[in-house]
Design goal:
The chain is mainly β. The protein is 11% helix and 54% strand.
């Protein structure tokens, strides 16, 4: 394990040394998320994210931006969930709040210094694994999520103002014999490049 950590650190430092510039900093913002699938409300619910980023500029226009975020996704169950999933008939339902450790790896393209377009994958690890859709029931959500992100960032001196669209690619439902559930949402936020 230590050998892989050392290789990772050396690789990162090598890439950083050859890059045009490296900036890093904290970020925070709001999530407007929902889960697509039967039994869930179509409206977006407010959550938030907080974490940090490293901006590695390869040249004046292109760069890579890995991030580590704590993402809170709130959603509401629909009023007809008891009819959609008959096995939930006698259970106490609650509106799930999913907390993910998210790792986006974004490709940055800056046609001008002020604007950066971003796109890339996001890997998510569900942190509240014991939470479920029904109290005292089985886990309803899988341990991981894989999403694609796309958006734009404004670079105002050291301030980073961004907006992104997130779409889940894999089924996050861990309930057997159900329809597919996917995360979807918008992110807006602020970052500070140090």
């Amino acid at each position: 394990m230590n050998k892989y950590l050392i290789i990772g650190i050396v690789s990162f430092l090598s890439l950083s040394a050859s890059a045009q510039g490296v900036k890093f900093g904290p970020k925070l913002g709001a999530n407007m998320g929902k889960i697509d699938g039967k039994g869930f409300d179509e409206n977006y619910s407010l959550g938030y994210h907080v974490g940090g980023f490293v901006q590695i500029n390869i040249n004046k226009k292109w760069g890579i931006q890995p991030e580590v975020l704590w993402n809170q996704i709130n959603t509401d169950t629909a009023s007809d969930i008891r009819f959609v999933y008959q096995n939930l008939q006698n259970q106490n339902l609650k509106n799930p709040q999913l907390n993910y450790l998210s790792i986006p790896i974004l490709l940055n393209y800056s046609p001008v210094k002020l604007v950066t377009f971003q796109a890339g994958p996001q890997f998510g690890i569900l942190l509240n694994k014991n939470d479920n859709l029904v109290q005292n029931g089985e886990n309803a959500f899988k341990n991981g999520d894989f999403s694609l992100l796309g958006g734009v960032q404004l670079n105002l001196l050291k301030l980073r103002v961004y907006g992104r669209y997130v779409i889940g690619l894999n089924n996050i439902s861990d309930v057997s014999n159900t329809d597919k559930w996917r995360n979807q949402g918008l992110q807006v936020g602020l970052g500070l490049a140090l």
